[in-house]
Amino acid sequence: MSEVKEAAVSQLPVKEKKVSIVDTFLKGCAKGFKVGIENITPAMILGYVLVYILKETGLMDLLGTVMAPVMGLFGLPGEAFAVLISAFFAKASGCATAASMYESGVLTLGQASMMLPACILMGTLIGHYARIVLVTDSNKKWHPLLIVVCLFDAALSLVIMRIILMTMGVM
Known about the structure:
The chain has 171 residues and is mostly helical.
């Protein structure tokens, strides 16, 4: 009789322990911290170091001269292109580069403000492309379009921000 009872008890659904919201939150924090340390931080450092190398080697001046006509379309000095290069690797790196250029007098407050939405819209393009597009094995014919859309969005944000800041009298 006890065997029948044990068999019946073993077939009863096991009540699962309810996971607390605090445990879920802490696991999410740990995952987020790991992603930040392994993925985001190296990209930020790479972008910022690249800008530093450009400054120290004098290539920033050359880049500023070469890119002056393009960046001039947006009311920016040619050196502002370094912000976009840095943002290409990490959004935060691009924003930090804009802040650094503002602090050193290369960009005005309005120009640095203009750059921030572009950094966000185009930022971390290399990392996102590698982690998402290549990993998902998407159709290769769309790869250039995926990059161009981000660059177009960034350029459009520069135009829109310039109009907004000019309307406000900041530029």
